[in-house]
Structure formats: C-alpha cells, structure tokens
Design a protein that fits this description.
With 123 residues, the protein is mostly helical. The chain folds into 2 domains: 2-72, Winged helix-like DNA-binding domain superfamily/Winged helix DNA-binding domain (Arc Repressor Mutant, subunit A); 74-122, no CATH class. Helices cover 67% and strands 8% of the residues. It has a two-stranded antiparallel ribbon with strand order 1-2. The longest helix has 20 residues, at 103-122. The protein is globular and about 50 Å long. The protein starts with a helix and ends with a helix. 14% of the residues are buried.
C-alpha cells in the first residue's frame, strides 16, 4: 500500500504528470522536455530524478546525451486513467453517475472530443 501511495503522490504533481504523458509518446532529453513543457531544464531535471528513482521512467545514454522514456504499461495506464477521470469530472455532474461499465467507451469518446475542441481553439 505504501509503494502504491508513493507512486500516486509522484503523479499528483501536474508537471510530473505532463512529463510522464510526454514520455509515453516517445523518449526525450531534458532540454526537449523543458522546451515542450515551457519549463526550465533544471526544474524538469529535478522532476525526472524523482521519477527515475521511483522507476516510473527509464534512462538511455547516447554519448553525452541522456534520454528518458516511460515505457511501462502500468505507468501508461495510471496516467491514462487519471487523465480520463479528470475529463470525466470536467464533463459535469450528469457524467459522474454513469454506470462504471460504460466509462471506458464514453471516456475515450470524451477525450477525443476534448482533443478536437483544443485543436479548434488553437486554429
């Protein structure tokens, strides 16, 4: 229970969750992550150190460069479920009472709708 709670505490930080989400879509260096997140490399590096020590991310060295990745299916599922749940809550009170067996299909559609809305706003 304590290890599970520690993992959830690490993912409870918005910056670390964004780092994990980015790394689930491919490996990145600290500078690439910092640029993607609009953060300072030193801060990203500190978050990555915590994630690495807890084995939520992996490290690959190539010469002087260090690349991070989040390849665990467990980490992917935790991040996806947290983000789906956030979208579920953002959908409002009517969505909260739905039958749990329909959540994955409905939440996947909701996430697609949210992504489409974000793309439309960006245009």
């Amino acid at each position: 229970m304590d290890l599970a709670a520690d993992t959830l505490k690490l993912l409870a930080d918005g910056t670390r969750l964004r780092i994990i989400w980015t790394l689930l879509h491919g490996e990145h260096s600290v500078n690439e992550l910092a640029a993607h997140l609009g953060a300072k490399p030193a801060g990203v590096s500190q978050h990555l150190a915590k994630l690495r020590l807890s084995r939520l991310v992996t490290v690959r060295r190539e010469g002087n460069r260090v690349y991070y990745a989040a390849e665990s299916p467990h980490v992917r599922r935790l991040a996806e479920e947290a983000l789906f749940h956030g979208d579920h809550l953002a959908a409002g009170p009517a969505a909260i009472g739905r039958d749990a067996s329909t959540h994955s299909d409905v939440d996947a559609r909701a996430l697609t709708t949210v992504k489409e809305a974000k793309r439309a706003r960006a245009r």
